[in-house]
Amino acid sequence: MTDTAREEILGRINQALGRRGGGEYVSSASGTVPTGSPPSATGSEQSHGTSGEAEAAGADIPAAGGGMVNQSADYLRTGTHEGEDLIELLIDRLVDYKANVHRVSGDPAATIAGLLDSGSKVVVPRGLDDSWMNSFSGEVSVDAPGQELSIPELDAQAAVVTASAVAIAQTGTIVLDGSPECGRRAITLVPDHHVCVVRVADIVDIVPEGIARLTPTAALTFISGPSATSDIELKRVEGVHGPRTLDVVIVDT
Amino acid sequence: MKIALFATCIVDAMYPEVAQATVTILRRLGHEVIFPEGQTCCGQMHINSGKFAQAEPVIAAHARAFSSTEWDVAVAPSASCVASLGHQQPMVARRMGNEALATEAADIAGRTYELSQFLTDVLGITDAGADLGSYFPHRVTYHPSCHGMRLLRLGDRQSNLLRSVKEIDFVELPLADSCCGFGGTFSVKNPEVSSAMLADKVRTIQSTGAEVCTGGDASCLLHMGGGMSRFQRTGNFEGTPDVTAVHVKQTSSTEAGADNADQLTAVVGASDDDHRIPGDQGTQPQEPSQVQSGLRVGQSAVHLARILASTKEDPLRVQSEGATVSGGSLR
Amino acid sequence: MTFLGMPLLRSTRHDDHEIPGGQGNIVEDESFAGVSHQHLSNQQLRNNIGHATATIRDKRSEVVAELDDWEALREAGSRAKNHVMENLPEYLAEFEKNFTAAGGVIHWARDADEANAIVTELVEANAPVLENGRREVIKVKSMATQEIGLNEHLETQDIDAFETDLAELIVQLGDDKPSHILVPAIHRNRDEIRDIFMDKMSDAGDLTNEPAVLAEAARRHLRHKFLTTKVAISGANFGIADTGSLGVVESEGNGRMCLTLPETLITVMGIEKLLPSFDDLEVFLQLLPRSSTGERMNPYTSFWTGTTPGDGPQNVHLVLLDNGRTRALADEHGRTALNCIRCSACMNVCPVYERTGGHAYGSTYPGPIGAILSPLMTGIEVEENGSLPYASSLCGACYDVCPVKINIPEILVHLRGEDVEANHSPVSSQLDAALTGASWMMSDGKRMAAAESGLPIAHAVTGGEQINSLPGIAGAWTSSRDIPALPEKSFRQLWAEDQARAEEEDDET
């Protein structure tokens, strides 16, 4: 059923774009690897042709993929903040979205311990720097491949402590990428309190710089403040289903 | 310069005094004004009703009229009609398969200016009082038309000219960038929505305490004036749902506007701390009596060309000076 | 957009056989003017919507003003989406290849019925039958599933779909319809929401109308469902062709719950949601949150690529939905409507939406974008969708805020032309007659002059008085507006007299 649907939808698209022979479809998988058309080619000359033109165009329809359309775009690709300004911007934006921010030089263990209830249960991903939990007196569970905490077990954790992949200052955004020190997605979701360590070296200024540092196929979670909603009269309320407390520990190393 | 006046159909038939004021201004600046006689209308009424086939001969009439005589620039006292010449006429002609008309229309549109655009961009006039002798010692508020703002991108050209009129008491209109609800045949096809928009606009105009509301488009002014007149006559918009969701907030940066803050509050009945909207965070319908407390009898609408044309020697008179107001329009 | 010199509007479509229109919740069944009447009379509704849209407009302007390169970002967003539409078969194939290679399964659905059937089959295969004899799924807010009426369909198949977004929950519990694509319960205020919760949520307890209290109630209500339900259904904001990734942009964490904890994830996405490359997100993750919630970045955004071993659902499906999108694509003057990223900025600035609310549009897609998207997807001739393009004063505010620069006013006018062509506008035949007369008159300056020569008589007949009431279609105008007295003479007449006088004076001198 769906194979027929696939061919029919692709046929409709070709028809809609005025390409020759509605049902026919040129697969890009068998064609050349595309590089994305330059902005000037995103006008209408390619695909709005009459049937005669489309036949000729069919051979070299700008095949898709492999690169972005806006490579020569004139929006900002790099920011202007650096050093202390950059850190200050990140802090300002995190606080604006109701995250708690703490800054330490060197070992963050004492700061982390201070944010957790002593004697409580805390989950950490297996790749987290061991020393970070040294000052904590509660029960630490390590979530690791093959030794994953069950959902009820996660639900019993008071908090989770992780590192982060990148932090975007302009938007106050922290990205987790499923790496060993960030952990799988569930551990930063079910516990109600997330302590997230951001290394100064992982801070970038603007969104394009953040995107450039990520591995696209990883399971990615962008976090900007604690869970929130504006669904009631557009009034922002922090704390719905995700962790209601987000502590960000910025570490100068 | 030899200037062809494009009067526009509504000014020609309903507001001849606006075209006369435009001619007065242009002649005062030493230009020759001609009136291409075959002119009728930009065709927007038909185009925006989806009647492209009926619009084509109207577009052709405009092209014929303005191609039949020599002129340097054409000027119209309307942003909407000028925008239609450039944004719509060539598109419609092309769709009707009339490429020659599309080219001709685009050429004429390229040389046609809205009045404030012409004064500011072509003639470099920034001080109407000094350069035109404009004089109008009254409280005035100003509604920027949607097409002036968003199609011609007039920005502050019109308001700057108005502010520079001698003795004018210029008051910022709250929520000025909201549409008045005219929209051509929209006002007839969706009369209730249009009336609801109009009612909110009229209330903001009343809140300024201005004696006249001005703007650069006679069509919007006809609409707003008609609403002001109806409201002043009857105290409500009979036959339409009562409208109270006017979200007036104090946006004025002028002294006059600041002086007027009390009155604004009276109109919106605002009691919340962010001054965003009336009532308790939008949870309570507003009492009509609060709304009507800002009613000011004697407000009228007038095209800005007539304010710019007004001088100390030959001033435009307002209602309190005995001028006639008809259907909300200052005659 | 270029027009290739074809003589008539209809022929701008590639018409050898018409591409089928979409079905489901994209059809206005009563004309907009008629249906808006009841909403305009609802004072509470108008206050709620007026308040909410005013708030979000201000928030949006503030965060947009923070970016110096906003216009360049809009341009880039528009360019990327245009490029995708022009090369859609290639990008779909590339996406399919990458998503499949990463362990996901793709299903293609021509229309709403087919999509509903596919999802039903997947749920039946993966969700256990509970003690009550029914199956359960949890859902992330999704316009596509709203469009196809998935919840209603599942209901008939003994499957309960639980909406988890707070606003969707409010709508679902209140047995209501969404009225806004971002904030579906925008027409409800806190008091109404509290009443709905107290009435319909068995575990609600005693609630105040504080938004924080109401949010807490929703958390308690849904927590157990999140932790135990085996199948989740989501939409997607983006599909990334060069990686096969899908993305969901959200705020509450209900999205993360659905995307992470269940064993099976079924996503329904329109075929137009693709972006060429992961790097294009550098544009869209700036455009969307600022335009949508008026935030620099929304609290949570998730991306997944097929399945990730040991992390999240291991059974991942995607239903690629047409349902009229190809029909919209076939309209070269309207196809940019498919560029929409569902931010809702256009409805927040729309003076018509602000006064009628979303229900008046009869579609999952209300406001300016809905007024073009619904008729484009179904065809203008379907039911009363032809009335939607007239639901605008053409003020242009929507175009100014659109993050991907969809020229909504221009498409509205285009669709009015389509409606006229389809001869589908019986509402205002008097207006049509008037316009036909005006066209004849305005096609020739002499005819207009002749008509205006009647002004002195008309002026005399009306006694030089303003006009407060008119019959027929003109009565729609005078329902709320007076008309100035007609002038005694047109400018054309005054000018001619002036010229004649000047010539006489010349002759005398």
From TrEMBL, chain A:
Bias-annotated ranges (Low complexity): 52-63
One Pfam entry for this protein is LUD_dom
Region annotation Disordered: where it falls in the sequence: 20-64
User: Domain named LUD: which ranges?
Assistant: 159-251
Residue stretches of biased makeup (Polar residues): 27-50
Q: Which InterPro entries match?
A: FTHF_cligase-like_sf, LUD_dom, NagB/RpiA_transferase-like
Q: What is this protein called?
A: L-lactate dehydrogenase complex protein LldG
UniProtKB/TrEMBL annotation, chain B:
| TM region positions | none
Tell me the InterPro entries matching this sequence: Cys_rich_dom (IPR004017)
Q: Name one GO molecular function term.
A: oxidoreductase activity
- Compositional bias (Polar residues) spans? 281-293
Q: Which Pfam families does UniProt cross-reference here?
A: CCG
- Region Disordered, residue ranges: 271-297
Enumerate the spans annotated as Cysteine-rich domain. 3-85, 140-224
GO cellular-component term (any): cytosol
Going by the entry's taxonomy, the superkingdom of the source organism is recorded as Bacteria
The record's section on PANTHER family has: LACTATE UTILIZATION PROTEIN A, UNCHARACTERIZED PROTEIN YKGE
Put simply, this protein is called: L-lactate dehydrogenase complex protein LldE
What is the source species?
Brevibacterium aurantiacum
TrEMBL record, chain C:
Domain (LUD): give its ranges: 92-307
Q: Residue ranges of the 4Fe-4S ferredoxin-type domain? A: 337-406
Pfam families to which the protein is assigned, alphabetical: Fer4_8 (PF13183), LUD_dom (PF02589)
Q: Which UniProt keywords apply?
A: 4Fe-4S, Electron transport, Iron, Iron-sulfur, Metal-binding, Repeat, Transport
- Could you tell me which InterPro entries the record lists for this protein? 4Fe4S_Fe-S-bd, 4Fe4S_Fe_S_CS, FTHF_cligase-like_sf, Helical_ferredxn, LUD_dom, LutB/LldF, NagB/RpiA_transferase-like
Keyword check for Transcription regulation: no
Give one GO biological process term: lactate metabolic process
- Return one GO MF term: metal ion binding
Q: What protein name is recorded for this chain?
A: L-lactate dehydrogenase complex protein LldF
In its UniProt entry, the species of origin is given as Brevibacterium aurantiacum
Q: What is the lineage of its organism?
A: Bacteria, Bacillati, Actinomycetota, Actinomycetes, Micrococcales
